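Here is one such protein, fold included:

. . .
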Amino acid sequence: MTLALRPMSLGEILDRTFQIYRSRFWVFVGIAALPAVALMCLQIANLFWWKLRVPTLVPILGINFGYFAYTIGQYHFYLFLLILGWAGSARAVTELQLGNKVSLHSAYAACLRRWRGWLGITALLWLIVLIIPEVVLTGLFIGIAYVSSEVAKSSASTMEALLPILTGLFILAGCALSIRLGAVFLLAIPAWWTEQAGVRMILWRVRSLSQGCRWKLIFARFMPALIGLVLNWAMSFTIRFVVFSVARGSFNGWLFRYYVLSSTFLFSAAVIASLVGPIFPIAITLFYYDQRIRKEGYDIEHMMAAAGLTADAVPVAAAAENAIPMSTDSAGAEVQPG
C-alpha cells in the first residue's frame, strides 16, 4: 500500500496507524508477539519448573524490596525486548510507505544486518527513558523517606501517614519524567532505521525533530496502554468467572485453581500484548515522517528522488561550471585582432 506523504493531524495519524496495522495484521502481531511470548515463557517456567521464591528482604519503611526488585526485573526484561522489536515495526511501516512488500522475516533480517546499532539504540533508549528516571527518583525517595523517618521518630503515626503520600508522589514523578523523556527521544527508533546514521547523532537529532509533536506522542503512548488495561481487566474478570464456575468437585482445590488461573492469565496477557503492541511503534514512525515533512520538506525530497532529479543535479552543475570558461575563452578569441 503506497501512502501519500503530507502533513497530517493527530486524528489522521491515528487513523493511518490502524490502516497500516490492518493491512499487514499478522506481520505486526508477529513482531509484537516475540517479546510477549518470551516473557510468558519465562513466567510459566518459573510457575511450573523453577518455582523461584521471591526473597523476603528486611522491609524498609514498609516496602519489601525483594518483591519490588523481582517485579521490576521482569518489567524491564519485557520492555527491553519490546523496544528491540520497534525497529522491525519501523522498517515495516517504511517499506509500506514506499509501496514495497514486507514480511516478519524481512523486517527482522534487515535489523539483524545492523545488529550493533540495533542493540545500541535499544539499550540507550531503555537507559534514558526507563533506568535513569527510576534510579534518580528511587534515590531521592529513599533519601527523603529516611530524613522524614528521622524527623518523625517520636511519632510513628505521622510517618505512617506520610509514607503513602511520599510513595505516590515519587511514583507519579517517575512516570512523568519517563513519559517526558520518551516524548523527546522515542522518535530515534524510526530515525535510526531510515537515516542510517550513528546512534549518538540520531539521539541528538531527534531532540529538535520531536519539538512540536511531544504532546501528541504522549497521547499516542497512553492510548494503547489504556486499551491494554481495559482488555486485561475484562479478560481477568471473564477468566475468573469461567474457572471458578467450571472447576468444581475434585478439581475445586486451591492449588489446581491457582495454576489454572495463573497460566491462563499469563497466556491472555501475552495475546493482548501482541494485539495492542504494534499500535505505538507504527504511530511513532508516522510521527517521524510527519515531522520531517513539516520541518524539512521530506515529501518534496522524496518526490525529487523518485523522479531522479537529485541524481541529475550534480552532472548539470558540473557541466555549467565547465561551460563558463569555455564561453569566456571563445568570446575573448572573437574580440582579439586577427
Remarks:
- The chain is about 85% helix and 0% strand.
- The chain has one domain: 10-296.
